Amino acid sequence: MVRNACFLLMAACLCAVDAFTSTTTSCLLGKISSSFDKLVCCSSSVFDENEEYACIINRRELFAKTLSAPLFIATRASASNLPQSTGADLSKTGSIDTLVPIVAIKQGLESVKSQLMSKSADAIILPEECQSILKTLLLQSGIPRNENDFKKIFDAYSTKVSYKQKFLDQNAFLVYYTNGFDGPGRPNIEDDANAIQTLQYGARNDAWLKMDDLFVELEYGQKSNDSELVVGELTSLVQKVTQALDAYLSLAPAADVEQASVIASRR
Q1: Which of 261, 258, 243 is nearest to 207 (CA)?
Q2: CA angle 89, 93, 97 (to 5 degrees)
């Protein structure tokens, strides 16, 4: 098996030379010349006196197949579970200052919800009403329309990705096939891998998806006179965003959320 592999490798190298040059090349395997289209490999005592290597190989075909053969390169496995950087300032994570903008988003949505609740659930939302609600969300409440800017607000408060999480992500293949084994008598390496950060990451993503759905409906409604968006449907969309925000804020200390709410309401 090894001899055959070495033989084919040597043949491929010779074919590469002769496939593109007219120079006559001689070697132990035989003679390759531009005047021949075949590479003749004869028996040789160099390998084994009891074995015969008799084959006729089209040198250009062999070279082409060699180049097109699958190449497997060992790379570091990655689970891609870690959040991509949004450019957020991570110097004040977990502080009241960085929690206030998140609470302000929720307060802006609650303000919109209270306005909608005063109307009939079956009432059609007019384009000018959609425009007014968008203005409230974007300008007064300061909710970013861009996904990266929206998530950046949450990342400025969220728990940082730990070194252990980075290790697990970069060595996901090894961790998976060893079932998290970290040595005799040691706990599973995946235990307690910064669970709070993972939960915050998921809640942040869910909040954006729900927020984007709300924006899309309002943007369509303000441009179309044929929109059939009713108060009840819009209220439901707002409620879904606030529920996602509640899920995120539930991961923060209750006292901090209360203090941030007081500060946000004064702005």
Answers
A1: 243
A2: 90
Backbone angles phi, psi at 42, to 5 degrees: -105, 170
CA-CA distance, 100 to 255, in Å (whole number)? Answer: 13
Residue 66: CB atoms within 10 A of its CB come to 15
How many residues can be counted in the chain? 267
Our CA dihedral for 3, 7, 13, 18, rounded to 10 degrees, sits at: 170
pTM given for the model:
0.64
Amino acid at position 28, single letter:
L
- Beta-carbon contacts of 7 under 8 Å, excluding residues fewer than 6 positions away, are 29, 41, 47, 53
pLDDT digits (tens, 9 = 90+) for 3-17: 444 445 555 555 454
Whether residue 161 contacts residue 194, with contact meaning beta carbons closer than 8 Å, is answered with yes
Contact status, residue 234 vs residue 215, Cβ threshold 8 Å? no
**3 state SS of 104:** helix
Asked if 99 contacts 257 with a C-beta cutoff of 8 angstroms, the reply is yes
Q: Which of 112, 134, 143 is nearest to 221 (CA)?
A: 134
Residue 13: count of CB within 10 angstroms of its CB: 13
Helix ranges restricted to H, 118-230:
127-135, 147-155, 163-170, 172-177, 195-223
Q: Judging by beta carbons within 10 Å of its beta carbon (0-12, 13-18, 19+), is residue 165 exposed, middle or buried?
A: middle
The DSSP bridge partners found for residue 25 are 32
**Which tens digits make up the pLDDT trace of 169-223?**
667 777 677 777 667 877 775 666 568 888 999 999 999 999 999 999 999 999 9
Pairing of strands 55-58, 38-41: antiparallel
